[in-house]
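One-letter codes give the sequence; backbone shape is given numerically. An example follows:

. . .
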Amino acid sequence: MHDLAPLARFDGLVAADLRDVTSDPAALDSSGFWAVVAGFEGRLVCARFGDVRRAPVPAPVAGAWRGPATADWTSSLDRVAYTAGVRRVREHIAAGEVYQANLCRVLSAPLPDPATADADALTSLLARGNPAPYAGTVRLPAHGVEVATASPELFLRRTGRTVESGPIKGTGRTADDLLEKDRAENVMIVDLVRNDLGRVCATGSVTVPELCAVQRHPGLVHLVSTVRGELAEGVGWPGLLAGTFPPGSVTGAPKSSALRIIGALETAPRGPYCGGIGWVDADRGTGELAVGIRTFWIDRSAPGGPALRFGTGAGITWDSDPEREWAETELKAARLLALASGAGSLTRGRGDSRLTLRLAQ
């Protein structure tokens, strides 16, 4: 195990001098600056840092990150299994069990030099080659957390008693690729997020200031909505997380049915992927957690040796075409995997790095 110091990097800030690590969400309402990684399966790691300062993401240093070979990536669900899963979700929809379910797969590749692998060096590459509004690093090797995210999606932003979520549903290479199915998918998830926030917000305070706005990111576009509310009296981070986690955009509707279907069809745990990743400043009553998409994590306990992992998925509705949904998961992954493997263009915000993957079961 290498001896990289604990670190967190978000929103133009870098945090060092680790003071405390806990799984208790009540700590986020205490004091100090916290980095947060909430895994999809429920593992919560909150790390309080004593030294927080403004600092830009450093430029990539040649050789600082050694990524996997492009041919070494494998997928928890190959094309045949994934498209079969899409058809199975459609059967559940036809049976009236669910309106939508997010079907995901986890990509993995062995790290060529685990001893020097640094998630923050990968963050530098991603920041230059795939800038994202909620990008960041959480590096806690002793606690099994080494995450580099280029997330474009807001899970929860808290400013005092005001909370906001920015669910993404609908993806294409350009705005012309977006279908009516994408808009319907977004509206369904907005209803779900409204319901989730409604559990913890004051009655009548939940609004939708923006619905299905087109947002452009490197190599693709998304439909994004905004849901906002005022926390009910007595509700803090524990209640907010309990009422909204896991994020609705990466589960489905109704959430309980979608989670059951996901559990039956997916063959690998999502871990930080599709969870919540970000920061909380308890002293100021502010915080920002991204949905853990476009996210890499180092798994040093992988059976075959230390591995780099990355998740990708798509929301499945009755109108879904299995091959189109598979292509969407490929589109979401291609540019980022190319960057992590050292094969992608590092031109900021331009181009569409594609990577042909050899995906095995």
About this structure: The CA atoms of residues 168 and 224 lie 5 Å apart. The domain at 7-340 is CATH 3.60.120.10 (Anthranilate synthase). The chain has one domain: 7-340. The chain is about 25% helix and 35% strand.
